[in-house]
Design a protein that fits this description.
Elements (H helix, E strand, L loop, with lengths): L3 H4 L2 H11 L3 H12 L9 H10 L9 H6 L8
Helix pairs in contact: 2-3, 3-4
Length: about 80
């Protein structure tokens, strides 16, 4: 099974990497959480919130399904 980081759609992985220079500690913490988990449900609410912050998506445009299951952010298996 792939990790969440491996399953991220390329545009979201690139968005994280684009913010890494400016916010290294925060982005590295998010990347670590994504690399150590295979299921979206294993992430904390704070980790999901931080992920959304650093991919530059607008929080109010993200649906409940995306928050709960990461549907928008992950590639189809």
């Amino acid at each position: 099974m792939k990790t969440l980081y491996q399953s991220l759609k390329p545009e979201y992985r690139e968005a994280l990497e684009a913010n890494e220079d400016k916010y290294p500690s925060s982005v590295n913490a998010i990347k670590k959480a994504l690399k150590y988990n295979e299921l979206w449900s294993r992430l904390t609410v704070s980790e999901v919130r931080d992920f959304i912050t650093f991919i530059d998506d607008r929080v109010f445009e993200i649906s409940y399904v995306d928050w709960a299951f990461g549907t928008k952010f992950l590639q189809d298996e």
